[in-house]
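Ticket #4471: structure export looks truncated?
Reporter: QA, pipeline team
Priority: medium

Steps to reproduce: submit the single chain below to the structure queue and open the exported record.
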Amino acid sequence: AAPLSNIPQLVKVWTAPTAEGVSALSWFAYAALSVMWVWYGIVKHDKPILLMNSALFCMQTSIAVGAVLR
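Actual output as written to the record:
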């Protein structure tokens, strides 16, 4: 469910004329935290943690990149 909650922000960043009000730094920090959780999922062989945080990482990185580029 967590990746789904990021969809409105992702749509806003990539469809609005500007990404004003979206902090790229915050989203890159969220993505960095997701990388740590992905690593934990790999080490513990925990597929739900691995899959959920991999999806979150992709969404968060897309939002951060969109905020930088727009």
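Status: closed, not a bug. The export was complete when the record was re-opened. Leaving a note from the reviewer for reference: The chain is about 80% helix and 0% strand.
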